[in-house]
Structure formats: C-alpha cells, structure tokens
Design brief:
Elements lengths: L2 H6 L12 H7 L8 H20 L18 H23 L5 H31 L6 E2 L2 E2 L2 H13 L5 H7 L9 E2 L2 H14 L1 H5 L1 E5 L4 E6 L22 E6 L2 E5 L2 E3 H5 L5 H23 L28 E4 L8 H10 L2 H4 L3 E4 L1 H7 L11 E2 L9 E2 L2 E5 L11 E6 L1 H4 E14 L6 E14 L5 E5 L5
Parallel strand pairs: 4-15, 9-17, 10-13
Antiparallel strand pairs: 1-2, 3-15, 5-6, 7-16, 8-16, 10-14, 11-12, 12-13, 14-17, 15-16
Helix pairs in contact: 3-5, 4-5, 6-7, 8-11
Amino acid sequence: MIFIARLARTTLPNPPRPALATNRRRIFPSCFKPSPSERTMTMNMISNLRGAAATGRGLVAVRAEAQPKTPASIPELATAFEAFKATHTQQLDEIKAGREDVVTKDKLETINAALSELQAAVDEQAKITAAAKLGNGAVIGDIQGDPEYTAAFKQHMRKGDNADSDIKAAMQKGTDADGGYLAPIEWDRTIGEKLKKISPMRAESRVITISGAGFKKFFSDRNVGSGWVGETASRPTTATPQIGQVEFQPGELYANPAISQGLLDDAAVDLEQWLSSEVDTEFARQEGIAFLSGDGSNKPHGVLTYVEGAANATRHPYGAIKVLNSGAAAAFTGDGFLDLMYDLPSEYAQNAKLFINRLAMGSARKLKDGQNNYLWQPSYASGQPQTLGGAPVVEMTDMPPVAAGNIAALYGDMEATYLVVDRIGIRVLRDPFTNKPFVHFYTTKRVGGGVHNPEPMRALRIGTGT
C-alpha cells in the first residue's frame, strides 16, 4: 500500500505537532484505493521493517533508494499515529452520517497494521539496546564457571567418543544421572539471558534458579491478632496465623538441534552461540504458552489458570486473580480498561503494565476517553513503551484474542505475581547415529512456574455484567 512509502518521506518534529491536516491530505488522499501491486509492495516493505529490527540496525526506509533510518524511527511512528487518528475520525463522522465508506474502513485497517509493525520494530530495537547492557559473567548464584570443563565440553561436542582420554576424564564431572552431560554453567546463563530477551513472560516475571528437584514457597494466612492495651493491662491471647504452601515443580523442555560433522570440525564455529541460537526459539515458544495457560502437568501452571473460575483458582492460599468485565459483549471499552486499572491496589500500581496480544492491541487503539482523546499512545522516545491509559503495554502473542468470554488482557505487576523456577543444569546428549551424516544434540532444560501472589494482578474478561 503506497501510503507507507510516502509516510517514510515525511518527517515530524519530536514532540509531534497536531497541526498536520495538510500533510495528512497529501499522504492519505480521499481517493486512496491500493492496487494489487501496491499491496504486494507494502507487504515487502513491512517485511523489511521487521527484518531490520531483528538485526539491530534500526528501521530501514521502505523506499528502495532510501538509506537506513536511525534506530528509533520515532518520527515515522508519530506521523503514522496522526494519520490513524485523522482517518478514524473520518470513519466515525461517516458512520454518524449513515454513509460508512468501505474505502475509509480499508484505509484505517491498513494504517492500523502499519502502526503495529512500526511499534513492534521500535520495541525490538529497545530490547536489543537493553540486551547490550547485560553482563556476560559466568556465575549463577555461588556457582562459578569452570574453564577446564568448558573446554572439554566443546571438544566432546566436536569429537564425541573420539576425544582424547584427558578430555573424557574432564567430562566426568558433568555426567548427568539420566545420560548425557551438563552444559557449562556459562552456557546455561547464555541460554537463560536469550530466553529473557525473546520471552515477554520470562522478562516480566520474577525468575529464580534452583539446584534441587523443586521449590516450595510458604505463606501466612495473615490472621494475626492485635489490639491496644494500657501499660499495666493484661495481654490477652491473640490468634495464631496458619501457614500454607505452594509447590513449584519443574517440568522438562527439550529440543533436538542437528549440525553436520563438517561444521563441528570447523574450529571457527562458536558452539556456545550455535547451541543457544538453536534451542532458545523453541524453548521460548513453549514457555510462552505454558507460562500463560499451562495445566501444570509436566509443565508450569499458567497465570491464566489462576483467574476466578479457572482450574487453579483455589490453588493459592490468597485466592484467585480477580476478573473484571470489559463492558461489551464482544469488544473492549474505554471504561472497561479504566475500571480494570483503578481496581488494582495502589501499592502495586507503580510497576503495573498491561499484557495483551497484538491483534487485541489493534482493537484497543481505537478507544477514546470522555474528552475524545485516544487512550493509546505510541513510543515518543527510544526505550519507552507504547501506553494505554498511561499504562505501559507488553505484547504477548499467546494471550487470548478479543472474543466473548475470553480473558483478553491482564493488568498488574507481573514480577510480583508470577514466579519462574529454573533448575540449573542444561543437559546435552550427543547423538551421531540417528540421522547420519548429522550429529544431533538432544538438549533438555527443567523449568517450572506459577503464581506466587495473585493480589498484584487483575484480568479483563470480554463480556458485560458484574
């Protein structure tokens, strides 16, 4: 759709100025109707935008002859939002006049999709910048890295049973009871940090590392008696609090990447980088599903299973995550979001964020407050998130879509709500026989998770009533 190419040529001062009516008419003419060739070109442009963000080089211009943009690309995002507001206002005016134009509707959805792509690219750039600041220390808790074992592990990956005898001897300290060898501690950290970059639930939750079989957290029922007495008055016996517990039992994630023996023999191949890049995407995909909706059977208990009426609503001593309705049978409403946000206790509001999937965000983008202002606002500075009603937005692919009865949004402090439990020790089993001439590395990681406090979170269900 050709409007994106024109949008790329238009700059907007930061902060943006609202008086852009003339430019909007030029960028989005009323006769706009993309041809099939323009649609194809626009899809290629959007693919280029996403690819540029993934490489960390910033957004590239959608015109073939243009030079790469600066990493933030905030002016493009702000200009697109101004165009979105103008077109949405035009659509609302047409609906009020009883003459909704299909061309206007198509144009609005196209701009909305482009806004989502631009915001996603800006968010990805922020992740890359934040990741660059992470340390590379090979320490987890009090466990230090072992350079000798790391070197031996690399040789084992390359040569297997053909490794020298001293290499085999050094590998004995990493032998796992279930077969294979434990990856070096610094490799464990590398994979964990990569998962944190690409898994929004892991990035927002509290993460602890254990070395045992499981983790138990104890909770008081807060039933502590108290009162006021005089200096010499008797002290009556008070109630004694009861202790409950929640257990977090890790399940096992696995991946089975393959590499040719020729590449293994190449000393220039970074085996740590190769293994982490092969397994982190698959691990992150499985974790994203389990942390939200996992049933706890050989996997984490998902946060959505703790809401009122769900499978784990009675699992925690403090009760279930409170649910509020959106205010419409099959859609979001502005009042629904405001009710959701103001229902959260004030002590948790400072770190609260809105968790929602991308398609649902497209619907929420059209909402306005009582003063006709849009609740959604784009990123206006590099590293700052998009917001809805002033709350930072975190896009989670595996959140349910907007449909009657679905929990389509969560709002609260996820770090104070959800606990991810990593058991230290990524196990790697070398298999050169199953798929010759490739060598497989059957890789497993034990991960658990569940709600450790339901009070800092609220859930929004699509529906009416109380």
